[in-house]
């Protein structure tokens, strides 16, 4: 792929918005084709799956929803799915810390105060990051990075697909798969592809985090005014 030769911040910012525009264009193309297929072939019922839990969070606590959608989710999800895409030693540490963060968020009760819960887990992950640097040698990190670099294309594509399938749980409590759900997660797979693309091009994990946050912010722009108007 055409990697950026110029490492200036301005070029990388332009590339961020370029990938954002391409991603949105792919969304439009997908939904256009899906609409045609739905009318003439499938006749799918998209109303049988709804993101009920997310909508409840949005209605009950909009600020929590904004934090989760625009900050927490991009950081954690990109730290898991894109940190091992042509990684550095630091991004490998971030990957392990993200897994610990995810485990902590599962173990801590859901009704725990969110503004305390997430900083506490984040602090624990930060301590883990420091510990990994002290316990694992630089040579070990280099060997692991070499392996991941060698298979970056597989990691990129599989990461995008897995990223999409993980979002099935936005709609169902246990893993279920049918044509409707597949169609509903295709936009996530498209997003995962572009998140990986900009990681490779801009060569830093911060860029897919930014792109992910921009992507989620589109939903916020459309949903927040409606939610606030009915509260």
Automatic annotation (TrEMBL):
Keywords: Hydrolase, Membrane, Metalloprotease, Protease, Transmembrane, Transmembrane helix. The chain crosses the membrane at residues 20-42, 62-80, 92-108, 114-132, 152-169, 175-195, 207-228. One of its GO terms (biological process) is proteolysis. The keyword Hydrolase applies. One of its GO terms (molecular function) is endopeptidase activity. InterPro entries: Rce1/LyrA-like_dom. Pfam families: Rce1-like. It comes from the Bacteria. Residues 62-217 form the CAAX prenyl protease 2/Lysostaphin resistance protein A-like domain. This is CPBP family intramembrane metalloprotease. It comes from Christiangramia aestuarii.
